Amino acid sequence: MMLRVTLLLLVVTAALARMNVLFLVSDDMRPELSIFKGKDFPSPVHPPMHSPNLDALARRSLLLKRAHVQQAVCSPSRSSLLTGRRPDTTHVYDLQVYWRVVGGNFTTIPQYFKENGYRTIGSGKIFHPGHASNYNDPISWTDPYFESGKEANMFVYDYKAPVSWMNVPMDLLKNNSLQDTQNADFAIKMIREAAPQARSGERPFFIAQGFHKPHLAFVAPQMFFDMYPESSISLPANPYAPDKMPEIAWSNYITTELGKFVDIAKLNASGDINSTLPNDVILKLRRAYYSALSYTDYELGRVVKELENQGLANNTIISFWGDHGWQLGEHGEWCKHTDFEIATHAPMMVHVPGLTDNGIVTEELTEFVDLFPTLVEAAGLPALDLCPENSTNVLLCTEGNSLIPLITNPASPNWKKAVFSQYPRNENNGDQMGYSMTTDHYRYTEWVQFNSQPLYRPDWTQVFGVELYDHYQDPEENKNLAYDSAYSAIVAQLSKQLHAGWRAARPKWVGQQKDGISTNASVRLPGD
Ligand SMILES: *[C@@H]1O[C@H](CO)[C@@H](O)[C@H](O)[C@H]1NC(C)=O
Ligand SMILES: *[C@@H]1O[C@H](CO)[C@@H](O)[C@H](O)[C@H]1NC(C)=O
Ligand SMILES: *[C@@H]1O[C@H](CO)[C@@H](O)[C@H](O)[C@H]1NC(C)=O
Ligand SMILES: *[C@@H]1O[C@H](CO)[C@@H](O)[C@H](O)[C@H]1NC(C)=O
Ligand SMILES: *[C@@H]1O[C@H](CO)[C@@H](O)[C@H](O)[C@H]1NC(C)=O
Ligand SMILES: *[C@@H]1O[C@H](CO)[C@@H](O)[C@H](O)[C@H]1NC(C)=O
Hints:
Elements: H1 2-16, E1 20-26, H2 52-58, E2 62-68, H3 74-83, H4 87-90, H5 99-102, H6 109-115, E3 119-124, E4 165-168, H7 179-200, E5 205-210, E6 218-221, H8 222-225, H9 253-256, H10 262-265, H11 279-309, E7 316-322, E8 327-328, E9 334-335, H12 341-344, E10 348-351, E11 360-367, H13 371-379, H14 405-408, E12 418-425, E13 432-439, E14 442-451, E15 457-470, H15 488-504
Parallel strand pairs: 1-5, 1-7, 2-11, 3-5, 4-6
Antiparallel strand pairs: 2-10, 7-10, 8-9, 12-13, 13-14, 14-15
Helix pairs in contact: 7-11
Bound molecules: 2-acetamido-2-deoxy-beta-D-glucopyranose (6 copies).
């Protein structure tokens, strides 16, 4: 009797204490934060970065130091993370199509919280806007979506003659706010509005705020440029394509993205392999990128602070991720659109009150599809099942793994052994796909023929290029070893592992839950 009463109390308390979620996103932010600095691979942090708010959040989070996106461009990456499924399941490889039309009517993270009684509010860039999400996926939200459009910046920025970067004088900001400032103001307002019901336990919230920076154009207030004196900025150490890189691995940064800015267009840069921009332009772009990153950090800090102001800090899960990495002249390359480490590696951290307060760093390999099951477990919602091979008609499932076990065991010998990304190319009159796998030691990529409808699967027999980089010897990926006969056995083994795919690389303990990996939290593993 006593026991039953205690259990009942526990259940009631748990229900009352249902945690809120603050879901923070940044656009094109590579993991160039002070907190990432370290001896481990990779730690591409220079110059000294000013990211005090993200660093502070990381110090009370599970910091996923080696998180990889499933495809290094906005809509495919976001559609994948938000549905917990990979591009070959969402069928989203570009910035146009909507997964509910081309993949299936898959439940998103905010939608699942909504279905579980949460108030879900979104602002800024969470989904890729426009057709790619049927205008921010109305199904996901209980409240009208808010977006301060790019018009917000028109007081200073001319979209008819767009420039790649701009430092905005501080006095112009007295009477005007930039887009991300306006979106942050909205998120703060919504936290205030949702706080009373969240505090009383009546209705928890899921508030999502997506920052547009540090995406091009790198527009940021002057005060952030002042944090990066020109003398502190250096050129990339490897302004050339990897030795023996197959041509298909390259993305022409002028035609994809950078060439639409008038200051870049007038340089007549080709965007070709082993060309890059003039040194003075590289330095200016790098400085502006860092400044835009620090501006994002500042706005994010204001939103996080509002949780404290409202007394909700100890009852709100916070996740942060940037949608993919970015090439700032490394390899002579710019933007994303590749399978290089620097494009697929992106920041991710998850704060779970009571579980991560002292900060946990893991260098295990993780994937963006892992966030959905993680937030579900952290909030105590019904766990997600592993998706079957064909999940077209399965509304709710996951192709990732909850990261919660890494909180108690951040160096687990049983965690996934490889993570997967992909990038399409449409050359040689057909569809090609670069399937890329990162292991602790290597990055291995095969560029192959891709069968789109109806299979959405690679044809491994038609190969257009192979890449192998040894991260122990060559963390910058400057030397493709795939065609070196000394590595043929390693290539054969990695090729087999790549073809076996993510299902074969799932953590050993899934479905077994052994070897002391279970956590304090009640863990029901997907697939159990
Ligand atoms: C997709 O799922 C949502 C939420 O359950 C539902 O409202 C909508 O009608 C579904 N759409 C289709 C095309 O089935
Ligand atoms: C800002 O607006 C106020 C009130 O409208 C005006 O007096 C002031 O001159 C403006 N300042 C700037 C820098 O435009
Ligand atoms: C690009 O430059 C690098 C470094 O000089 C060289 O190893 C590589 O072969 C070049 N690639 C092409 C396609 O010219
Ligand atoms: C770019 O090309 C245009 C047209 O050919 C020419 O007028 C201009 O001088 C070139 N600029 C540079 C930086 O080469
Ligand atoms: C959370 O903070 C509030 C306000 O500071 C406090 O009243 C409450 O007891 C705290 N709850 C937990 C679970 O620590
Ligand atoms: C997956 O299932 C859907 C719905 O039953 C079907 O239309 C589609 O052809 C299947 N895909 C494959 C590759 O079998």
